[in-house]
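Following up on my earlier thread - several people asked me to post the actual chain instead of describing it. Fair enough. Here it is, all 130 residues.
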Amino acid sequence: MIDHIGLTVVDLPAARSFYEKALAPLGITCLMEVTEEMTGGHGAHLGYGEGDNPFFWIGTGRAASHSIHVAFAARDQAGVDAFYAAAIAAGGKDNGAPGLRPQYHPGYYGAFILDPEGNNIEAVFHGAAG
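Reply from S.P.:
Thanks for posting it. Predicted structure:
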């Protein structure tokens, strides 16, 4: 089981703006900010999650992450649709509009976008098609 994941980004303010808008429909918000000073010069980081669990991190570092795929769970198909609309409005690029993906399994409903740095970000609902 994965506890958390982190991506290195080139432009932290732009990434913050994008992820705050794109993840809001999924109930995921920025829960923690770690400054460059707090890490002893090893980058600034933002932790996103729900409740008190930051499980998705973005931060500055030596080299930006590329070609990373991260999938966030949605509560229903409407959540996937809302994620996709918010991510596109926040500057993401379409990488697969919301819809059923039966090639993965029956009821797999997902949407894919590329974030401003080219990472493949998905929202998925694993319930029955409705």
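The chain has a mean pLDDT of 91. That should answer part of your original question.
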